Amino acid sequence: MSPLPRPRVTATALLGGPLPAAALHALATRGSGPVSEVQSLLTGRPAATVPHSTPADVFTAIATAADAQRVWARRTERDRRAALARLDRWIARHRTYLGELLAHGAGLCGRDTAAELRAAGRALRPGRRTVLPRPRGVPRIRELPRPRPATSVATHTDDSRPLASLLEAAVPALLDGSAVLSHVSPRAAVLAARLCAAAVAAGLPAGIWRLVIAPPGSLTAAVLDEHAETVIPPCCPAPCPGARRPGLLVVRHDARLRTAVAQAGRACFSRAGQGCTAAPLIAVHDTHHGTFLRRLASLAAQLPAGAPGVRSSALSSLPGRGPCADFARFARSIAHDARLHPVLTGGHRPDLAPYLHEPVIAGTAGGPGPGPLPDPALLTALPPGPLALVVRYTHWSDVLTLARHTGRHATLITNGRSAHLAAQFAGLRAADIH
Q1: First CA to last CA across the chain, in angstroms?
Q2: C-alpha distances in angstroms, 85 versus 114, 130, 155, 302?
Q3: Alpha-carbon torsion 361, 362, 363, 369, what sign?
Q4: Pairwise CA distance, residues 382 & 304, whole Å
Q5: Helices of type H across 247-362
Q6: Cα–Cα distance measured from residue 6 to residue 10, given in angstroms and rounded to the nearest whole number
Q7: Around Cβ 258, how many Cβ atoms within 10 Å?
Q8: Backbone angles phi, psi at 155, to 5 degrees
Q9: Which residue in 39, 112, 284, 355 has a CA-CA distance of 20 to 30 Å to 126?
Q10: Is 256 in contact with 223 (CB distance < 8 Å)?
Q11: What are the backbone angles phi and psi of residue 409, rounded to the nearest 5°?
């Protein structure tokens, strides 16, 4: 009996057509694992067929990366920076092309695509610096020997920030002379593979940057973390179903309302509320609550709607049929939930994109405990999406109590110094406070 043919990585014209050889070589998969059919978040049509990596593929990738790392580590720091600077220029020349990949693969709107490309440029900024020559007459200073660069570094990407998160983790390791094994989801695999092919064309050796394709939390991702020499963990691991902890944004009594509303709009509605830095939970002081709620609803209602690929659009798509259906079901349930009262209930907009949903804003009623805080069970049940859940608070202790049930990201909007306020979050889950 002849063996079955190995599934090949295919990409339709929506994702730029067939992958070049250098992009296929970057994928650490032999085709023996499961296969994902990736649909465009912009049109709903098939966009790619991507086979998953297996634990055996991870072992092979680590072994081949060691050979490429020895070649890469022998290069001078100037050469490594020059190669990454050429990759930076390639991204700058292909902004339109990458924008189309981000629209179809990640569902990003025009505004979010522009923000993603700016973040990618910042991630590559270390590659632009050059090593200045030592002036004549200046004596040499004996430097301590640098530690040996890691042979293999495992990184993880965020589907809501596929390009920026890929570069933010990989660039420092590549500059250090290490080989990088990036764990990407099937949805981000085509974009990541094309970026790796551009890196090879920019001067990086083939095999120095490989892609492990697997869903978050899979066995393959765990094997990669276990056997790579160094691991750069994701900002926030993917939560278990029903255990998501939302980000928190706090509007203090001395906050400027214009700044607070603009920041809340970005934190709640950009990238369709996806990613660990999204802050669907907003705690607003009594003095601003009514005005803030009206202004935020006005901002959300005036967001320019359009297909995610349109440059002026400000509404990104949800990542698939299941997340879109879950969020639409939650939006419809707000009117019947005694714990919530609707302020702005947007709807599903399949006329613009198959998985696009308008923003939703709701206020909260007090929970079973004392004070105005909502039911903690409600917070863990919030689905990812363009949602703003506004909580009224009177005392600062209410905010600290609320922070016991939120994620590690928190934003404080205040007109004063926030350093002494951030210190009060010590011991709580909120560790990244801005």
Answers
A1: 62
A2: 20, 10, 21, 39
A3: negative
A4: 25
A5: 257-269, 289-301, 321-333
A6: 12
A7: 9
A8: -130, 165
A9: 112
A10: no
A11: -100, 130
Helices 162-176, 95-106: axis angle to 10 degrees equals 120
Is residue 414 packed enough to be buried (19+ CB in 10 Å), middle (13-18) or exposed (0-12)?
middle
Closest CA to 368 of 359, 376, 360: 376
Q: Transcribe 10-65 into DSSP letters.
A: EE-GGGTSSPPHHHHHHB---S-S-EEEEEPTTT-SEEEEEEPP-HHHHHHHHHHH
Q: Give the position of tokens 């995610």.
A: 308
- Give residue 346's pLDDT: 86
The values of phi and psi at residue 25, to 5°, are -65, -25
User: What does 86-116 look like in DSSP terms, one character per residue?
Assistant: HHHHHHHHTHHHHHHHHHHHH---HHHHHHH
Mean pLDDT of 133-148: 46
User: 355-406 pLDDT, tens per residue?
Assistant: 999 999 998 875 544 445 677 778 788 888 999 999 998 888 888 888 888 8
- CA atoms of 424 and 6, how far apart (whole Å): 56
Residue 177, pLDDT above cutoff 60: yes
pTM: 0.86
Residue 180 tokens read as 């990088």
How far is the C-alpha of 387 from the C-alpha of 310, rounded, in Å?
22
Residue with tokens 């805080």: 373
Six token digits for residue 253: 């009594």
pLDDT of residue 178: 93
| Spatial contact of 27 and 48, defined as CB atoms under 8 Å apart | no
Q: Who contacts 299 (Cβ-Cβ below 8 Å, separation ≥6)?
A: 261, 262, 265
Max Cα distance, the chain (Å): 79
For the chain, how big is the Rg over CA atoms in Å?
23
